[in-house]
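Handoff note, outgoing to incoming analyst
You'll be picking up this chain. Sequence as last confirmed:
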Amino acid sequence: MKLQCDNVKHKLVLKAKTDKKGYFYIGGPKNIAGYSTRHCNVVLDSAPKVLKPSNLHGGLTGALLKQVKRSLSKGVSLKLYTVGPFAFEPKCHH
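Most recent structure output, in case you need it:
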């Protein structure tokens, strides 16, 4: 998985691998507040050998972040976002 944010001044790219159930977590850096979530998306970065990423829910073109939780911890505002689910499809061999 790859989180990519692009505002006019800065570009941010963070990667993570999924666990065996397909879940992943990417923690944003402290300066992520400088990025509007509308400038961020998540894409499938790679696939298992015989598969390729599909564009289900924006897996190729970029899925927008959907906020699912907001909390306060030690005076710091925390936000949790979700995307997907994504899927893979078989590679076509000719």
